[in-house]
Amino acid sequence: MSEHVIIHTDGGCIGNPGPGGWAAILQFGDHSKELVGRASHTTNNRMEMRAAIEALEALTRPCRVVIYTDSAYLRDGITKRVHNWQRKGWRTSTKQPVKNRDLWQRLLDAIERHQPAGGVSWEWLKGHAGQEMNERADTLANEAARNADANDPVDLDEPAGPPIQQPGLPLG
Predict the structure, then answer these.
(1) Which CATH number fits domain 4-155: 3.30.450.20, 3.40.50.2300, 3.40.50.2020, 3.30.420.10?
(2) pTM passes above 0.85
């Protein structure tokens, strides 16, 4: 039986775009770990995506993973849209370049690493509805956004074309 990891994620920013933060809480059995990062200038959607990416990349070996997110953008993008975008050359149904392509590609790579152990499944839950781990991730992400300053990296959508690998955000 493969290892089973539960991850709760959240991300946000003050203004959109603006200073942002992300958080992920990883749970494995009785163990848990909180990951937090921030950016001086970013968008809410990028912070939501980065929380999931950073959490998956933090796992040291392939695992069966369940990610809980309150972001429909993230959950629907990865479960319903991304493969169509790839097939259409990273274009939307209206032939516009897909926003956040660099992060979608990085997320696909992070997910692929966990396929041998059972893969990654996605669960949406309503934000601010009292679910303990979602509320904790929200608190951590908001604290990170409030503490972001000019010394933190800018994390904005890359222009259309080949993705540019961005360095990871520092963990708080």
Answers:
(1) 3.30.420.10
(2) yes
